[in-house]
Amino acid sequence: MDRRIVFLTILFIIAIMADIALGSVSLSLSDIWNTLTGNSNDMIYREIILNHRIPKALTAILAGAALSVAGVMMQTLFHNPLAGPDVLGVTSGASLGVALLTLSASALPFGFLAGWGQVTAAVAGSIGVLLLVIIVSIRIPQTVSLLIIGMMFGNFAGAIVSILQSASNPDMLKLFITWTFGSLSSVSWEQMWIMAPVILIGISFAFILQKQLNVLLLGKNYAIGLGISVMRLRLLVIFATALLAGTSTAFTGPIAFIGITMPHIARGIMGTSNHRVILPTSILCGASTMLICDIISQLPSAQGTLPINAITALFGAPIIVWIIIKNKG
Fold it and tell me: What is this structure's pTM?
């Protein structure tokens, strides 16, 4: 096995253990092991590890993997190094769904808004934008035009959200703003049984399409010459990306930069654009980075929890600047 993959795998395992061990209550590896093996009767540790730390770590892994894989597919589809999973407006659609529920429904109880209500609204918003994008993609063969239209969908959704924010009461506005910060700690085991299978299905689509994506790297005309239906491939990529980005956003809120930067880090580490290599590498990079960001956001010395979006931006913004400088020519 490639030493680089071995190193990333070890880093990933260390990040998982550190994310479970560190927090407002620091735990030793023996505490974690005894709890997982049933040799500990400490109910407080069991509650912290089994019902908080492990679901949070799994959420970080799933969200990081989903956004990274979606970013790989978008950058290949649009031949654009700065394309990410949000370029089709799916993330904005999820935000719009939550905004419509939260900011225009002040009569609903807070418990509903903070639980399945927000998830359902985000999924509905993502599906709505997905259907619009699919309809447009069938009628418009130019990939660049689809990119622009996706951005317009995002801007339109953002404009409606801004209008709703200006007309909402402070309590509902605070609830929505908190959701936009992103959170990895709000996914329960009950929700995990929905989040995990959907994301795994989306990732499976990416691996099934990896050979066609490799051909698409050589150009649309070359792909057509080899008998690949570019329109069909584009629809499948859009669908898989919507599953990944929409589900991640629904359960964790919008998380920026991971989808754009992780594919570049994977390519830089492995020195290739072959999807057979880049997809698993991006999953490892994305999952490890999300775990590390979660650790930073919940350091024991920190007062409260930092927004996960702020931490990912600290990682991602310098990489975006480097990508732009590197591709200036």
Answer: 0.88
